[in-house]
Amino acid sequence: MDEPAKPGWLERLGAWLSPEPDNREELVEILHAAYDKNLIDADALSMIEGVLQVSEMHVRDIMIPRAQMDVIDIADSPAAFIPFVIEAAHSRFPVIGENKDDVIGILLAKDLLRYYAGEEFDVRDMLRPAVFIPESKRLNILLKEFRMNRNHIAIVVDEYGGVSGLVTIEDVLEQIVGEIEDEFDFDETEDNIIQDRSGRYRVKAVTEIADFNEVLGTQFSDEDYDTVGGLVVSKFGHLPKRGEHTVFDGLKFQVLRADSRRVHTLLVEKLPQEA
């Protein structure tokens, strides 16, 4: 006689949720209690919290600001902008006319293969329609629209119709599952500190303070904390959420990725020295 199958974590969690919580705060407390009792693991807890968070967040909370958008000028020839495409390593690029408020369409990097194949190539003919969304759109609604329309990128506009940034489906999913690393992101064991084109540094929180000091020329002590994450959390005085920032010793530390238990990735910027 076959033994009955052991209940999965969802079934065990369902039993734990009796009686049902009356509000979101109670639900979060129950989830953490379930984690403490090993009914769900850390990854499951983090993703559930991410889903709850996405339902409350708006596009403006995660969009890539206008100033940081990597765009292609429609007036440039492929020979002129392809080196930029290779350096940026994105799969999709907004194409603009006179300025960033004039987004004509979206160019897929893979369509540039036709140019290399020697085919007749006109950038305008390659453009896909751009999708425009307001800053106030909720992320759960945007994710649903991305899935329904099979779209991966949207241009964000403000109340006056001007472009304020862009957002991708990856940006939304990272709020749920954590940072999605690809072949252009740093790997798990190397390159803990990456400098971007604007001169800022993307730093893993587990980076040892000694390594951080060596790259950025700082002199932080590692007597109390071994990692940059530990140092930064101590300066916050609490576990920060994504988007929070703090400034000390001439550096601005912004949280790029964090969950309910730890900080994962930081954006570090050297501030101009006061005269």
Task: Report what the structure shows.
With 275 residues, the protein is α+β, with helices and mostly antiparallel strands. The protein has helices at 9-16, 24-36, 42-54, 59-62, 78-88, 113-116, 123-126, 139-149, 169-177, 209-216, 228-236; strands spanning 64-65, 72-73, 92-96, 103-108, 132-134, 153-157, 163-168, 193-195, 201-204, 245-248, 251-258, 263-270. It has a 5-stranded antiparallel beta sheet with strand order 8-9-12-11-10, with helices on one face. Helix 2 runs antiparallel to helix 3 (42-54) and helix 3 crosses helix 9 (169-177). The longest helix is centred in the N-terminal third of the chain and has 13 residues, at 24-36.
Order of helices and strands: HHHHEEHEEHHEHEEHEEHHEEE
Classify the secondary structure makeup into a structural class: alpha+beta
How many strands in all? 12
Helix percentage: 25-40%
The end-to-end distance, rounded to whole angstroms, is 82 Å
Q: What is the secondary structure topology, with strand pairs?
A:
Elements: H1 9-16, H2 24-36, H3 42-54, H4 59-62, E1 64-65, E2 72-73, H5 78-88, E3 92-96, E4 103-108, H6 113-116, H7 123-126, E5 132-134, H8 139-149, E6 153-157, E7 163-168, H9 169-177, E8 193-195, E9 201-204, H10 209-216, H11 228-236, E10 245-248, E11 251-258, E12 263-270
Parallel strand pairs: 2-3, 5-6
Antiparallel strand pairs: 1-7, 3-4, 6-7, 8-9, 9-12, 10-11, 11-12
Helix pairs in contact: 2-3, 3-9
